[in-house]
Design a protein that fits this description.
Number of helices: 5
Helix content: 10-25%
Oligomer: single chain
Strand order of the largest sheet: 1-2
Shape: globular
Order of helices and strands: HHHEHEHEEEE
Largest sheet: 2 strands, parallel
């Protein structure tokens, strides 16, 4: 792919931000989705489409929503009414799913609830330098899913096993004790190996807040 054709990285993507233009290339998972869920094929077939056919398949998928995979419904009332707390994160350096899609969904939910303050039940953390769910040049270890054992480098494991550093513990603390996470601290390990210690940490804030750090004084500010 010609790098000059790639869209720019999102603000806050840190270095090495990547972006991909899918064009008409469809990866294996998406091809299987169209073949066996949208078209309901019962035999193994290779999916070959042009742009017009792809648009037709997308239109069918939007209407039929097989397996309820769209995940775009902003009506979270049933979930919230049961006392549910939604703690979401997305990496600004995600090369597969645009990071703006999570911000878009958050705003759709706010709009559905008449722009009410949702901070007591829904918090979105946008993570600078985090790739697709994990990895990337940023502080991508904060107790996220997909953690590896210490013997395998400890990717994803938090610096401290507390709600301030660990997103899973933060979610538990929110649900069980009613303490919403004001910030989360992520860590980047040296050579991505927990056994070599921390290279740096970053303070993450719930959207729409943004973190402004002073590297010389190590002071942190939150801005709306």
């Amino acid at each position: 792919m010609d790098p000059s054709c790639s869209p720019p990285s999102s603000p806050g993507a840190s270095s090495d931000g990547q972006a991909q233009l899918p064009g008409l290339h469809i990866d294996l998972h998406l091809a299987d989705y169209f073949s066996y869920q949208v078209l309901n094929k019962t035999s193994v077939q290779k999916l070959q489409v042009n742009e017009a056919e792809l648009q037709r398949l997308v239109a069918i998928a939007d209407v039929t929503d097989p397996g309820q995979t769209r995940a775009m419904n902003p009506n979270l009332k049933p979930f919230f009414s049961r006392g549910g707390k939604l703690l979401q994160y997305h990496g600004f350096s995600d090369p597969l799913i645009p990071s703006g899609s999570s911000i878009w969904y958050y705003e759709q939910v706010r709009s559905y609830f008449k722009n009410a303050d949702l901070s007591d039940r829904y918090r979105l953390f946008m993570i600078p330098g985090l790739a697709h769910c994990s990895g990337g040049p940023g502080a991508s270890s904060f107790g996220r899913p997909g953690q590896s054992s210490v013997s395998q480098g400890g990717a994803g494991q938090s610096l401290n096993f507390t709600p301030q550093y660990d997103m899973i513990l933060a979610a538990i603390n929110w649900v069980e004790k009613g303490v919403a996470p004001k910030t989360i601290i992520g860590v980047k390990y040296k050579n991505d190996d927990i056994r070599q210690g921390a290279a740096f940490t970053r303070l993450f804030c719930p959207y729409p807040q943004a973190h402004r750090g002073n590297l010389s004084t190590r002071k942190h500010q939150l801005s709306q």
